[in-house]
């Protein structure tokens, strides 16, 4: 089973913190659609005939496309990849795009999962982040979407400058009360090149303390697990039966094809990514030679990715699979490096699987780093 990711690069405006590839010039839309359809044809051999189980429209802001645009893409995907076995098709959307008229237009399209970039239920936070919607809109839109979608995920952000633990708790309580069945929560990151990073460098915003960050993450786990969510990946919580199947494919090493500018692909042996330029992307597709960078993955790189992605999940990493896929030398290395964390209670070994404990999640970056082959 494999997945398809389609990057929709259009945004009405840039968020303060975003470092994903996006473009606010909508005049490219028609040419972009032609390129996506053509890329689907050009790269049909990449998945080597594997059955496509998930499709994910990410961005950017995919909800900047209209129903007719999606229909063009789905028609070609069905012709080239056969989506009859697809069980999860996700649309990322901004709350203010999901008007009653827009939602009505999506009926008849195969979307069965909606992922909304809420980020916060506090208006001051949304203004700071340069989001387009309000807190009231978010609550109203989630309620409206639940009438049409059973599977709804929302993104939340914590660790904002000046944000208090109390305010974060209120965000979580509102999220739980909304009735959604999946929540992705991310700490604000000051990515170089973003407007937010420039503000930090100029001393105009001050990141929250490490102590506050840890307290917020701890409260995130406590509130959501008490509400029936399963903490199945470091940043992701889902009700049983509502884990993201598409994103889980990234963490479990399954193959996926990424289409659109800056999109990444993986087939087990190599990783490749499209150029992060809309004109260059479209020119390459038009010429029949996609502008793609390819990285061949050697044994040690694949081992490192296996460790990093697997330890992020509640299943951890299978030591049996590790030995079979990477050999006894790397198996012994991993076991040796993990020993001190097992003794400290930061890792646990359960049914021959190596997993982070609750305490280990808070220092997961350091643990993963020590298990990597350098």
Question: Can you give a write-up of this model?
Answer:
β1, α1 (29-42) and β2 (52-59) form a beta-alpha-beta unit. It is built from 14 helices and 15 strands. Helices cover 42% and strands 20% of the residues. It has helices at 29-42, 67-81, 100-106, 123-129, 135-146, 165-177, 195-201, 210-226, 245-251, 278-286, 299-311, 319-343, 358-361, 364-371; strands at 2-8, 52-59, 88-93, 113-119, 151-158, 182-187, 230-233, 236-238, 256-259, 264-266, 270-274, 292-296, 317-318, 347-350, 353-356. The strands form 3 sheets. The protein has a 9-stranded mixed sheet, with helices on both faces. A 3-stranded antiparallel sheet has the order 10-11-12, with no helix packed on it. A 3-stranded antiparallel sheet has the order 13-15-14. The chain is an alpha/beta fold. It starts with a strand and ends with a helix.
Keyphrases for this structure?
single chain, 9-stranded mixed beta sheet, 3-stranded antiparallel beta sheet, 14 helices, globular
Give the N-terminus to C-terminus distance in angstroms.
Answer: 31 Å
Q: List low-confidence stretches.
A: none
Shape: globular
Structural class of the helix and strand makeup? alpha/beta
Average pLDDT confidence is: 95
Strand content: 15-25%
The largest sheet is: 9 strands, mixed
Oligomerization status of the protein chains: single chain
Secondary-structure element string: EHEHEHEHHEHEHHEEHEEEHEHEHEEHH
Trace the largest sheet across and list its strands: 7-8-6-5-4-3-2-1-9
């Amino acid at each position: 089973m494999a997945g398809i990711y389609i990057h929709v690069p259009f945004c009405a405006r840039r968020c303060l913190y975003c470092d994903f590839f996006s473009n606010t010039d909508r005049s490219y839309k028609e040419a972009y659609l032609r390129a996506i359809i053509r890329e689907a044809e050009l790269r049909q051999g990449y998945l080597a005939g594997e059955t496509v189980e998930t499709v994910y429209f990410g961005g950017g802001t995919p909800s900047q496309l209209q129903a007719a645009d999606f229909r063009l893409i789905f028609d070609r995907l069905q012709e080239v990849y056969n989506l009859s076995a697809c069980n999860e098709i996700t649309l990322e959307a901004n709350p203010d795009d999901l008007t009653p008229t827009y939602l009505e237009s999506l009926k008849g399209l195969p979307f069965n999962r909606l992922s909304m970039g809420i980020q916060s239920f506090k208006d001051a936070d949304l203004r700071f982040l340069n989001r387009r919607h309000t807190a009231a809109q978010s609550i109203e839109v989630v309620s409206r979407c639940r009438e049409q979608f059973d599977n709804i995920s929302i993104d939340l952000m914590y660790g904002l400058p000046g944000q208090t633990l109390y305010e974060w708790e209120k965000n979580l309580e509102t999220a739980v009360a909304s009735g959604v069945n999946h929540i992705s929560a991310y700490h604000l990151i000051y990515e170089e090149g973003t407007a937010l990073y420039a503000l930090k460098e100029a001393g105009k915003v001050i990141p929250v303390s490490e102590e506050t960050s840890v307290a917020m993450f701890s409260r995130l786990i406590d509130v959501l697990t008490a509400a029936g969510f399963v903490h199945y990946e470091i940043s992701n919580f889902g009700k049983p039966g509502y884990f993201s199947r598409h994103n889980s494919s990234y963490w479990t090493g399954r193959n996926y094809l990424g289409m659109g500018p800056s999109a990444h692909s993986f087939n087990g042996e190599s990783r490749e990514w499209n150029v992060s330029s809309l004109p260059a992307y479209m020119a390459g597709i038009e010429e029949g030679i996609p502008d793609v960078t390819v990285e061949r993955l050697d044994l040690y790189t694949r081992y490192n990715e296996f460790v990093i992605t697997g330890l992020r999940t509640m299943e951890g990493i299978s030591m049996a699979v590790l030995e079979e896929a990477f050999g006894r030398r790397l198996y012994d290395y991993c076991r040796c490096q993990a020993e001190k964390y097992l003794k400290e209670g930061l890792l646990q070994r359960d049914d021959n699987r190596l997993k982070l404990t609750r305490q280990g999640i808070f220092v997961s970056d350091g643990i993963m780093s020590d298990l990597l082959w350098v």
